[in-house]
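pasting for ref. prot 1 ->
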Amino acid sequence: MADHRTSERVVITGAGSINALGVGVDAFAQALRESRSGIRHLSVFDPSAYRSPWAAEVDDMDAAPCLPARLHRHSSRSDRFALIAAQEALADAGLEEEDRVGAAVVVGASTGGMLEAETHIVERERHRSGVRGLLNAPVSTTADRLALHFKCGGPRLTVSTACSSGNNALGFAADWIRSGRADVVLCGGVDSLCRMTFSGFNVLQAIDTVPCRPFDRDRAGLTLGEGAAMFVFESARRARARGATPLAEFLGYAASADAYHMTQPRPDGASALHAARGALAASGVRPEEIDYVNAHGTGTPLNDAVETKIIKAVLGDRAQLVPVSSTKSTTGHCLAAAGAIEALACVIALRDGCVPATLNLENVDPECDLDYVPTSSRKREIHTVMSNSYGFGGNNTTIVLRRPS
């Protein structure tokens, strides 16, 4: 487990979003307050060959801010998600071009331009086509596009640790600020739906045939989603000097590896528990200070039961009193973007005093006996939150955020 402790405070001064619930942070916040789901029948490619047609697909790109025509034309779907979210985050933070000269970029990603690569391969079978459809396939392309378009001249990094990629990207961004490697970092996570991941999860029978039901007795798998959340991280000192108003403080994180199985979590949850406790220690936060837990909450039988054990072990006697929810029931499981999108849900919960709901939870599993905020969001003052992300290969990461003081 990595432990990251330092005196430099890291704050979030800008945020941007695009997912199945809409374009922009305000649209996402409103959907969470209203407990709306973005899960619907997939249309970005034909799902008829798969066991389930459900996905949380971004379908209102027309509402997104316009990108330059050439950039739009040469970017993958994943790239466009990240560019749209980053554009909002930078504007929200009030960072002008001269402020971004030394800015770093850290992006969590897993599929890159795979959708376009798949389309290219299909089209090659029908008629001769060039290689342009393959140019955006590398998972590192999104970070390169962000740095180039927004003129961020600092270091850049692509993090690919499956479904914990987004959370790890935020953690690495905080590390860079605390180590003095960067004063400001554009960071987040992005993924788009593609045939490879959709077919892979279907073959594993990890997809539910109805919209996912985290913590429900009848849960049978996840529902895939797509989108991006991007943030501007900077030192509290720098933010204060330029008069920026923080949205939240990133207190700390920790990561661990199950070293157990490529797709299944360790049944005892020991490694993920190590990450959660490590995140609290790195943040200087006591378990009794946690007001809300954003769960990984995939809706798979193993994950939800194991994560419940982990939360109970971390929070102890207070576990039954702390609201826990899975926003994957609204956004779907956005893979590498999941941690970042859920971190944004936490920022919104801190800002608005509103705990997001776990949708589709009708018959609570006796093994899952916490307060999962079923059906409807809940008004509640929140000061400190914890968010878990667990990925294939046993990649576990927990982050801790707090309302700005």
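and prot 2 ->
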Amino acid sequence: MRIAPPIELSFEQRTALERLARQRSRLGGVALMRNYCYPGNAVSWRFDAPANDQSVAILAPEATPDHVKIIAYNLERVPVTAHMTGWEVDPGKWTMTQGTQAGIGNAPATADTPVQNLETRSVDFERSKDIAITFPPRTQVVIELKLTERGVPYWSRPDLGIDPEDVKVEGAKMTVTVHSVGAIDAPASKVVLRDKAGKTLAAAEVPALKAPLDLTPKTAQVTLAVPAGADLKGATVTVECGGTVPEITLMNNSVTL
């Protein structure tokens, strides 16, 4: 019987496989890979300075649309605050438990080590929504999230969006183009201009917009009068959707000038 020789991988192939493994273990799925047309990660992470992505070792052994488990170890000597963003998870109310695992003597904690100091809270969690988590120094933390009450499915939501190129300022006039990119028709909304301190400078009504179910753009253009002498550096332009149905995401609703 002939035995096939082992497959020898190139440096580029090994690097690609390692990148895949890191994403699956840290993000609960592959977020970005060549020829992947859609991300599959359950979560992503953002760390408050001076911490960074190398401050906390993270493993996501379980990551499904309704159940996420995280095991993390803070390598720093000070607490680290991170913001975990949901992606390929179902929207709704989740029960989140967080506790610590400590080894006995010089033995490190293992998967079978009991979780102590458990804290439980209810959180609203969905695609593009953050949960702030503080990791104590030099401590192994176990976090588990379970969906307990389903929210409005993404495919039953409207979504409005604006981009920096959609905001045009000419003298005392600001023109904003609002896009409907959701799965259902968007109700009437408004565009609000605020200075960097959060003070409202101007606002304009946006009519209801159809969903782009025929794959053609659905937009509305509104005009705002910029107050004389207004400082627009650091100001924000935000589109605020009316109605009671949540949008798919709020990440495309605001532009900073």
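The chain has one helix and 16 strands.
The radius of gyration is 23 Å.
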